[in-house]
Amino acid sequence: MTDPRSTAPTVLVVMGVSGSGKSTVAALLAERLGWIFADGDDFHTPDSIARMRDGHPLDDAARRPWLARIRAWIDARLAAGENAVVACSALKRAYRQALTGVSPRVRIVFLEGSRAVIQDRVRARHGHFMPASLLDSQFAALEPPGPEEDPITVGIEESPDAIVAAVVARLGIPADDICG
Ligand SMILES: Nc1ncnc2c1ncn2[C@@H]1O[C@H](COP(=O)(O)OP(=O)(O)OP(=O)(O)O)[C@@H](O)[C@H]1O
Ligand SMILES: O=C(O)[C@H](O)[C@@H](O)[C@H](O)[C@H](O)CO
To answer: Where along the sequence do coiled-coil regions lie (predicted)?
Structure first.
């Protein structure tokens, strides 16, 4: 397992279905750690966003170049010696392998929640391209990370602050190294 106190950089991939809180939690986590943040939503092409907005899920072929762009971003952070957090659904095991390159420096954070809770949150959310109607396809595609992926799995019922605190505790980062 990665020792976050070592000098080698770490990248956290915050994953889960649409509406599980990836953007919210990953941004707050990055702020708390003082690490660089990126949102996987910003790596989509306009075509992919239009497709999802129109209620059609992306397939493996559409996701492949998107994941490759995020992987390039992760590799650049590691090469520059920068710690970072990226929000990305990374629903399937193969997607996560494409992202991590099975590097021990890249850790998976899985936001685990029930369909009922997530549906309520997505329905209450406004101004986002992802419609609630795509939730079934997100859960159908989801392959929760197994123990061999050494994920940090956290439930989503509590506040974003509490979720971030739980992730930080699991990382074992000393309190002195945490912002705010
Ligand atoms: N722990 C939480 N408690 C209550 N509400 C939350 C929590 N986390 C996120 N939310 C809210 O739930 C909604 C979905 O969160 P968010 O947009 O971060 O999810 P996401 O996984 O990034 O979604 P998508 O993949 O569709 O971009 C937002 O309105 C957000 O404010
Ligand atoms: O993997 C996918 O099906 C999609 O790319 C989505 O998950 C979006 O990236 C986003 O998370 C929704 O807003």
So the answer is: none
